[in-house]
């Protein structure tokens, strides 16, 4: 599912993510990284507060600066503003709820997906389309922050006695991106299964013949 999610992310990137907004976030993140790197480097050169040796000090400055810059990138929105409004049953859906499918669709998003019932076809198509759009943006936005937090965790582990805690926290943050890709892959799997089903015909009322007609 992670591999399928990655394929969906690559295919839908420009449909769901605003490239200008992402570039702006990257530029601001780069400025923050340089500023933090200079601050850490100057304070370490003048006071030696890191007390881990020259090579580890340089590594700590680099990782700390990168971590701060990447976390900053995640603080800015990258969702494509010009996207069509998301609707379910004709009602517009708030962006913060678009990743949550209705109850009848949730059973198709688990580890083992049952065959999609024809009666659920339209609901699955609608909800998984919303989930795909939202999760693609989620991954693009949180991935830099997750990597940045991992860098900061490594930096904290290098400069303090909390190495084990920093290691566990770092691993926990790194697991967020594969988890979102897995969710994206499961939504895509359900969407494809629903697409393969024929549309459900609308019920047609039968005519009752009158006696003697």
- Helix proportion: 55-70%
- The percent range for strand residues is under 5%
How many helices in DSSP terms?
Answer: 7
What is the first-to-last residue Cα distance?
61 Å
Give a quick summary of the entry.
The chain has 213 residues and is mainly α.
Walk me through what this model shows.
A hairpin with a 2-residue loop joins strand 1 and strand 2. This protein is an all-alpha fold. Strands 1-2 form a two-stranded antiparallel sheet. The termini are far apart. Helix 1 crosses helix 5 and helix 3 packs antiparallel against helix 5. It is built from seven helices and two strands. The C terminus is likely disordered.
Quick tags:
213 residues, two-stranded antiparallel sheet, 7 helices, 66% helix, elongated, disordered C terminus
Please outline the helices and strands.
Blueprint: H1 2-16, H2 19-47, H3 54-74, E1 87-88, E2 91-92, H4 103-106, H5 121-159, H6 163-174, H7 176-195
Antiparallel strand pairs: 1-2
């Amino acid at each position: 599912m992670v591999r399928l999610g990655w394929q969906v992310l690559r295919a839908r990137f420009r449909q769901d993510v605003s490239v200008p907004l992402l570039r702006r976030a990257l530029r601001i993140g780069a400025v923050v990284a340089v500023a933090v790197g200079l601050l850490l480097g100057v304070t370490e050169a003048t006071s030696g507060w890191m007390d881990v040796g020259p090579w580890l000090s340089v590594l700590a400055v680099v990782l700390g600066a990168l971590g701060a810059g990447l976390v900053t990138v995640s603080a800015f929105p990258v969702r494509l503003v010009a996207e069509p409004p998301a609707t379910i049953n004709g009602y517009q859906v708030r962006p913060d709820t678009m990743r949550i499918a209705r109850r009848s669709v949730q059973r198709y998003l688990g580890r083992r997906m049952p065959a999609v019932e024809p009666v659920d076809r339209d609901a699955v198509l609608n909800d998984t389309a919303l989930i795909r759009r939202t999760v693609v943006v989620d991954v693009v936005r949180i991935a830099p922050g997750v990597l940045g937090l991992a860098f900061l965790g490594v930096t904290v582990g290098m400069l303090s006695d909390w190495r084990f805690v920093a290691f566990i926290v770092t691993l926990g943050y790194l697991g967020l991106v594969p988890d979102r890709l897995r969710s994206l892959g499961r939504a895509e799997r359900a969407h494809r299964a629903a697409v393969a089903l024929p549309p459900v015909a609308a019920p047609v009322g039968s005519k009752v013949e009158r006696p003697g007609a």
